[in-house]
């Protein structure tokens, strides 16, 4: 497979993004406001800059586009420019583009399209593809007890593509089939740390991989909104058969995941308790390390950097109390703000036979959220750990 050079494809992506906006002239209002963008983590270094969300509504007042250019300076890789474009259509259809260029090594192009109600609402469909180079990826080894002194760095150069087709069993239940393709190359990283492939040459996946996965998914969702829910339950479960096409023996392995989310609002919905539990398992031989279960990062164990702990299986529990603190109008946009103290706890392990209720990593922290309901969420989360903690920023809830 020949991958496009990200730096040459970036102008094309930007041109497509502009045409997407110009092609629809039925705008009623355009609003924007700058937001500081700051984050710091053990993996990614320090970010400082700004993001400027631009909100475009149609004549009926419904949100049509969010255009979010971002400029930050990273302490490891230098200046980075990013353009996010989200398009919202009737029936819950959503299109997303992202293009990013960093002074050193990192590039990103991505596209996704989701239609939750095609053919009179009986079916759902989504498709996506992305290319990126992450120059600050870390690897400490396999297992729950890998010491911090084992830290190594590599660039994850990846191409990903996926599709999923679902059938609505009823209003809140969906069964889906899909496939994903993941092409990975492990290249020298952007830090002064030892190169992962030189320090761990015998770990499966260091030679790269071409993964083709076949997935069956069950989804139960009663939440009142997909982007900024205040009430409801979500249950997601999948079973997946994977093949490494780059390995001459074509080894097969299996991945399973069960995730449960529950939102428990107060009567006024000014306080929302969110509980999330997740179990992931991987069974098979010669499984690349980046295909195994991992803990760390902005979506599960927020006191550690991405992929801090890796093994065959993981269990994680997140408890977060979202507290409404302010509602105000900013440049004709009604924004809401929340404070969200949280506790994340979890572990990775290689067998279900021993010590399932011991040796959990626990990372308490606090989050700050700004929202323009129903579609826009911005957040900053700080999680503490015995390795120093981390700050993450994003354009969605962590779960």
Annotate the secondary structure layout.
Elements: H1 6-22, E1 29-32, E2 35-41, E3 45-51, E4 54-57, E5 63-74, E6 78-88, E7 94-102, E8 107-118, E9 123-139, E10 152-170, E11 173-187, H2 196-199, E12 209-221, E13 232-244, E14 252-265, E15 271-284, E16 293-295, E17 309-311, E18 313-330, E19 333-349, E20 361-372, E21 376-383, E22 390-394
Antiparallel strand pairs: 1-4, 2-3, 3-5, 4-5, 5-6, 6-7, 7-8, 8-9, 9-10, 10-11, 11-12, 12-13, 13-14, 14-15, 15-18, 16-17, 18-19, 19-20, 20-21, 21-22
Structural summary, described in words:
There is one protein chain. The protein has 399 residues and is mostly beta strands. The chain has a single domain (6-394), classed as membrane protein fhac: a member of the omp85/tpsb transporter family (Porin, Beta Barrel). It is built from 2 helices and 22 strands. It has a 20-stranded antiparallel β-sheet that branches. It has a two-stranded antiparallel ribbon with strand order 16-17. The longest helix is centred in the first third of the chain and has 17 residues, at 6-22. 30% of the residues are buried. Residues 1-23 have low confidence and may be disordered.
Summary of the model, kept short:
This protein is mainly β and 399 residues long. 5% of the residues lie in helices and 59% in strands.
Largest sheet: 20 strands, antiparallel
In oligomeric terms, what are we looking at? single chain
Here the CATH topology equals Porin
Number of DSSP E strands:
22
Average pLDDT reading:
88
Report the radius of gyration as a whole number of Å.
Answer: 21 Å
Instruction: Kindly state the percentage of residues in helix.
Output: under 10%
Name the CATH superfamily assignment. membrane protein fhac: a member of the omp85/tpsb transporter family
Unreliable parts = 1-23
Individual helix count: 2
CATH architecture: Beta Barrel
- Please report which band the strand proportion falls in: under 5%, 5-15%, 15-25%, 25-35%, 35-45% or over 45%: over 45%
Q: Please give the alpha-carbon distance between the first and last residues.
A: 34 Å
Kindly give the count of domains: 1
In N-to-C order, the SSE pattern is HEEEEEEEEEEEHEEEEEEEEEEE
